[in-house]
Design brief:
heterodimer, A: 561 residues, two-stranded antiparallel sheet, globular, B: Glutaredoxin, 5 helices, 7 strands
């Protein structure tokens, strides 16, 4: 089927090319990316059971993506092919295998109407009910395959309706997804001069037949949301409320619980104020039983396969390496199996503050000084939990239960003169490993990081980044150093090492070193590196993927045309 | 399968003959106003520099800090406008407005929340800079290291 559609697209486009006399021949654009890894044995890198790192079967692996779009007048046709040879990189969904056509679409778009058939990406509101997106680093591509219709009769009203099945590997989900979203810009209707006011409503339905005998829940799960967005001069406030109708809870992998049928909800509130040189922003979020998959049994799978909504952790995404060891993950799930570990969701928030000490002031100096402060804290949702027959729970709207995570941090960036620029960070974290990762332990840590860039000439520079992490448990202390040389405008080289010198087990005091270089030319970038990969969570945008420890050579190339 | 891929590559070949246009996509600006990346950035002979960034991307922020310092100087000789396209998703999107104002950046900021524009342009890593003149993409810079702004300026002078 896919092949037929693809050949159809190709045939169509070639006929267009054939008519060379036609004025508008359309344009072709696209991109190519490959990430290849050659896994090696490493006798000196052990896991916690003292097993050395052994390369997997098929040590040479790669993930490659090629997409081509053809646009003519109001039409766009696109196709993406993917290849996983010999296999997908370690810990990617094994459903990604060999080479095949992954997604394709045909789209008609003008000022008022946008119709897409085939695979498409969409997000309603903040994405807490529906988001389909692609993140290759995490192996996520949950595009919907079906039909989407967007209608904008006026400037201030947008209606989106869609139907589709979700991509999983090179196939699509059993579950079917229906959705509608309307957004109305009231400020345009009432001709507000200085204010922006928009409201939006969302419906998402997930229809999946169940094999359970006498199910106490419906095949169709309905979800609704409303949102509002208001801004006036430098002030702004926005809020969203989501509700997911009663559905069977999946606590243990692959087990639908026919006796625990619960609804889910989310509440998001954000407000802030900013003017030139100053900004403050605060967010509050409450989540209760909010995981949503296009197939019920997919819940909790480690590949983020069949995930329908986007529940990011609302914390600061740090760029220092050591600040990415204890990364918070949002906790929307229900677990009642163990008296000592019960969950029904999370509650918490964060505050950000940005300030720019002006040029010419005492703290600003000649070039100004930029300061960013951030504080976040999350708790389990508090309430009453019943572990034994029948299992159940009742939550409080503002119930702050067990503390899961806190992060207080300050970041200062300062340009000293034309050649020197520095950055400094201090981070204090509390990470409740038992609740976040469902294992045991809790970690308190302090991280200090400093970086400096020195420009030798207009296009040659060196950057050094040094970090230290003090932790009271788990793997304890780490030190890290990174040096990056930018030789000319196209070529860069780096050497880095992360050293877990504080590990209580001397045998596990590993160095995670890496050396690499990259070359950039116009839209192309190619990078080659050798080194060790720390095992653990690799997180992008608050969504994480587990990667095992590995040693090897990696090559990546990307380009667009 | 191999045949299919070959065909695709053949198809890619056509790309080099056609001048790349900006895709017809509308994004919200920082105040929630919808803007089309084609029709709203179409002033004749004006050079639009679309700089893709995110609040968590340090080199992106270095680049935009640097450009903010030099843009007044550049504008004296070249008809340029810098547009900062934030690729932050809903995790960090709320941080954009206070950050932009906190830093005192004087850019038009667009929100590419579900990475529609980023995907359409085939962008894998940020920072990534796309230079547009009269609706056509005339230059691309993939990545940023200190000093790249000088190369960019030299290139802009030739456009």
């Amino acid at each position: 089927m896919k092949k037929v559609i693809f050949m159809g697209l190709l045939a169509f486009s070639s006929t267009v090319f054939a008519q060379e006399k036609v004025k508008d021949k359309g344009t072709v654009s696209g991109g190519f990316e490959t990430n290849a890894q050659w896994y090696l044995n490493d006798k000196c890198l052990f896991d916690e059971f003292y097993n050395p790192v052994v390369h997997p079967e098929d040590p040479l692996r790669s993930n490659s993506y090629l997409f081509v779009n053809y646009k003519i007048k109001n039409w766009t046709f696109g196709i993406q092919a993917e290849a996983y040879e010999q296999q997908a990189l370690l810990n990617y969904n094994p459903k990604y295998e060999n080479a095949n056509v992954a997604t394709y679409f045909a789209q008609f778009k003008n000022e008022q109407v946008d119709i897409t058939a085939g695979y498409y990406y969409e997000q309603f509101g903040s994405g807490l009910l529906l988001r389909s997106w692609e993140d290759r680093a995490l192996g996520i591509n949950n595009a919907l395959r079906g039909l989407r219709f967007i209608y904008k009769p006026t400037k201030y009203f947008t209606l989106k309706t869609l139907y589709g099945q979700q991509r999983t590997g090179f196939d699509v989900s059993e579950g079917k997804i229906y959705g509608a979203d309307a957004e109305l810009a009231l400020s345009d209707i009432f001709k507000f001069e200085k204010d922006e006011l928009t409201i939006g409503f969302t419906y998402v339905g997930r229809d999946e037949k169940t094999d359970i005998v006498d199910p106490k829940f419906n095949d169709l799960t309905n979800a609704f949301a409303g949102r509002i967005n208001y801004s006036h001069n430098g002030y702004y406030v926005s809020s969203e409320y989501d509700y997911k109708s009663k559905d069977a809870v999946v606590q243990v992998k692959n087990q639908i619980d026919n006796n625990l049928i619960k609804p889910g909800s989310a509440f998001l509130l954000n407000m802030g104020y900013s003017k030139k040189g100053f900004g403050v922003d605060a967010t509050f979020r409450r989540l209760e039983n909010m995981s949503f998959y296009s197939e019920r049994l997919a819940k909790g799978n480690q590949y983020n396969d069949l995930i329908m909504n986007y529940v990011p952790s609302l914390t600061k995404q740090h760029h220092y390496n050591l600040a990415n060891i204890y990364v918070y993950q949002a906790q929307p799930n229900v677990i009642l199996n163990d008296v000592n570990l019960v969950k029904a969701g999370e509650i918490g928030g964060q505050i950000d503050l940005f300030y720019n000490f002006k040029k010419g002031t005492a703290l600003g100096g000649k070039y100004g000084t930029k300061v960013a402060l951030n504080y976040s804290q999350y708790h389990g949702l508090g309430g009453e939990f019943y572990i034994f027959s029948p299992q159940d729970y009742h939550t409080d709207f503002l119930g702050f239960g067990k503390k899961y995570f806190t992060d207080v941090n300050i970041e200062i960036t300062k340009k000293w003169n034309e050649k020197w620029q520095s950055g400094f960070t201090y981070i204090n974290q509390y990470y409740n490993k038992k609740y976040i990762q469902e294992t045991y332990g809790e970690v308190k840590s302090n991280i200090v990081g400093a970086e400096s860039t020195y420009k030798f000439s207009t296009n040659k520079s060196v950057r050094v980044q040094a970090e230290h992490l003090w932790a009271n448990s788990d793997k304890k202390n780490w030190a890290s150093l990174l040096t990056e040389f930018n030789l000319g405008s196209k070529y860069a080289l780096y050497v880095s090492d992360m050293y877990n010198y504080g590990n209580d087990d001397a045998k596990l005091q590993h160095h995670y070193y890496s050396i690499g270089n990259s070359y950039r030319f116009k839209s192309t970038r190619i990078a080659l590196a050798y080194g060790r990969q720390r095992g653990g969570l690799v997180c992008v945008g608050g969504v994480c993927r587990y990667v095992p420890e590995s040693t090897g050579v990696s090559l990546s190339l990307n380009t667009s045309f | 399968m191999k045949k299919l891929l070959n065909l695709l590559f053949l198809f890619v070949g056509f790309a080099s003959f056609s001048q790349k246009q900006m895709p017809n996509i509308s994004l919200s600006d920082i105040d929630g106003k919808k803007m089309s990346v084609t029709t709203d950035f179409m002033e004749k002979d004006k050079i639009y520099i679309f700089s893709f960034w995110a609040t968590w991307c340090t080199p992106c922020i270095s680049e935009l800090d640097e450009m903010n310092d030099v843009q007044e100087e550049w504008k004296k000789t070249l008809p340029i406008e810098i547009v900062a396209v934030a690729t932050d998703d809903s995790r960090t999107q709320k941080r954009i407005k206070p950050l932009v104002n906190g830093k005192g950046w004087e850019y038009k900021v667009l929100l590419d929340s579900n990475q529609e524009l980023k995907r359409a342009l085939g962008i894998v890593n940020i920072p990534y800079t796309v230079v547009v003149k009269n609706g056509a993409i005339v230059h691309i810079q993939n990545g940023y290291v200190p000093g790249n702004e000088n190369d960019l300026l030299a290139k802009l002078k030739t456009l």
